[in-house]
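Team,

Forwarding the record for the chain on the shared tracking sheet. I've put the sequence and predicted structure together so nobody has to dig through attachments.
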Amino acid sequence: MRRNVSERHEIAIVGSGFAGSLLARILARLGYDVVLLERGTHPRFAIGESSTPLANLALERVGVRYGFADCYRLATHGRWLAHHPGLRRGLKRGFTYYRHHAGEPFAGRGLDSERLLVAASPEDALADTHWLRADVDHHFVREAIAAGVDYRDRVELTHAEVGDDDVRLTGARNGEPLDLRVSFVIDASGPGGFLARALAIPSALERMETHSALVFSHFDGVKLMRDVVPGMPEGPHPEDWAAVHHIVDEGWMYSLRFDHGVTSAGFLLSPRGLATLRSAATGDASSIWREVIERYPTIASVFAEASPLMPIRFQPRIQHRVTQASGERWALMPHAYAFVDPLFSTGISWSLRGVERLARAFENAASKDRIPDATTLARYDAMLGAEADQIDALVAGAYEAMAYFDLFAAQAMLYFAAVSFAEVRQRMLPDDTAAWNGFLGVGDDVLDPLPRASLRRLRAITRGRGESGSAAERESFVRWIASAIAPRNIAGLADESRHNLYPLDLDVLIERHALLGMTRERVVDALPALRGMGVEPAFAT
C-alpha cells in the first residue's frame, strides 16, 4: 500500500553538485521542506573547476546573508587553507595564456613572447581557487544534510507532471518505486538534465555560435611551464599557479594545477581543428590526446612524464542549450539550461549567480504555497537567455581570434574589462540586488553589445575560415577593442606598454575613479574592501 502513496515536499532539487546542494541548504535555512535527489553517489568526479573573483564574491554574499561560515571561508585560498585544509583545491592567482605553433617549441622571446597574463589577486592568501569537485561537491552535500535537507542518492527519475497545485515526480530509488509531489522543482542536474527530457523542453543548440569538442582527464606528474621554458620575464603572478591556457591551431588546452600535485587538463577542439586529426574518426580519446600533444613540442615536454589518473575521455560536442529556463512551478539552474565552453571560467560564477537569484525569489515568495511568482520566474528566464547569448558570442569570438595571437589577446580584454568592472563595483559599492545584475555586462549600455560586435568584426577578418587577416585589419581591431572598453576599463587593460602582462594595479584604479562614478577620495577609502581586508563576519557556532 505504501507504493501507492505519494510523498509530499515543498521543494525538490534534482542534482547534488555544489549549486544544487547549496541552494537546497539555503532553502532549508529559509524554512522550506527540501528533498535533494541524486542519480549517483558522492564523492564523484566532475569538471568545471576554476573559480573567479566574481564567483568568490557570490560565495561571500551567500555566506554572510544566510550565516554559512564555510561559504565565506571557501571564497579565498588563504581562508580555505586555514579552515578547510582537508578539501583539496589549487591556488589560482590569475589567467595565463600561451600561443603554440605546430612543430615548433614555444618561442620565449622575452617581452615579445606570445603570452598573456592577467592577475586576479595581489597575493596567495586572497587568491581564487581551483575546486577539486569531488571534494567540494561532497562537502556541500554534507552541509545540506546537516541543515535538514532530505538527501537521497541512487535515484532515477523518469517522469514529471506539472499540475495546477503541484508537480508529480516519479521514478525509482534502489529499484523501489519513488512517487513525490512537490510545490516546485529545480533542475540542477546539468546538460541534458531531467526536466529538459521530462517536460520535452526544445533544444536551442542550433542558435549557438560556439562549437567545440573536449578530450580530458586528471593527470599526475605534469611539469611546470616555467621549468620547461626557463628565462621568461616575470609576470604579475606565478604563471603556472593560474588558469593556464595553451592556444593551439586546433583550439586550446586548459591546465589547472591542484595543490596536491594533480593537474586537470583538457583540449577544446574546434570543428576545423578536429577535422585535421587522423584519430578523430575513431573517437578514441587516448589517441586524440596523443596526436594533439605530439604536434606541440613544449606541451609534449610539459606532459612527458604525466600519467592519467583515470581513462582519458572524449566528448564530440560540449555545448548544450534549451529554449526555456523556467515555467510554472519549475526552474533550471544555469548549467542545466546552457553551457558554452570553459574558456573564460564562467561556469562556477554563473551557477552561483543562479543560486543567489533563485534563493532571493523564494525569500520574496508571497503566494500561499511560498513559490516564486510568474513575473520573477519570467525575469529569471530572460536573464539566463541574455547571459547565455553573451557568453556564447564572447567565446565564439575568441575561437575566431585564435588565428592570430594579437587578435586573441585583444578579444580577451572584453572579458577582463567586464569582470573587473563588475568586481570592483560589487566590492566598493555593495548592492543588495547584486544577484540580479547582468552577467558579463548584460544590460550595461557600454558592455552589452560588445561581444556580438566583436564577433562580427573578427569573422570579417578571418573570413570564417581561420585566416589571420592583414596586418592593417588586425591593428584596426586592436584599436577598436581599446576604444570600445575605455568607459569601463578601470584595470589598465589593452595597454601596449604592458606587453600583455597585467597586474592588479590600484594606481590605475584610483586614477580612473570617475569611471566608477566615485570620487578619488572615496575610491581610496574603499581600497581595503577591494583587497578583501575587512573583518570576517561573526558566524554562529
